[in-house]
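[Meeting: bench + compute handoff]

Bench side (C.D.) handed over the final construct sequence. Compute side (W.E.) agreed to return the predicted structure before the next meeting so the bench team could plan truncations. Sequence as handed over:
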Amino acid sequence: MRLFFIWASALLFVSATQYQNHYPFESDTILTAWLIRTYVDKNATFKSFPKTVTLKKEVAINTPNAYFRRNAKYTAYEMAKRKYHISDTCSNSLVKVIKVLEMMPWKKHEYEDILAFEEGLVPLFPKQAGDANLTKVFHYIDQYCKEHE
């Protein structure tokens, strides 16, 4: 019986997807990771690599070959929302935030709430490449959603 629990625990660990991005983190990458962890895969893990490393597009976030990447029309966050059909008050309110931060950064000073969000978010980003503990940054985003419902 004990062997079964060890095997089952290992299987759960293996089944969690490790999403990858290039270091340094960007707001779009962080919000996409939060969206995946919150709505798609509670066991997802995240790891960043130097830009010289080519990542598989199936697990990459916001890299040139990733499924979830910024283009001229959408952010990586919006691409993930569309793929997973996520639509609720919290995830929808973050669309405007990420759109301004990533697609129109010159306008962010026109939105005090978005500027304040970014000022609280960015200092929580991981400070080096490797396994990313995003607990604090995810908690910050959750708090923002609770305050803006």
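W.E. noted at the follow-up: Strands lie at 18-22, 45-49, 130-131. C.D. will use this when planning the next construct.
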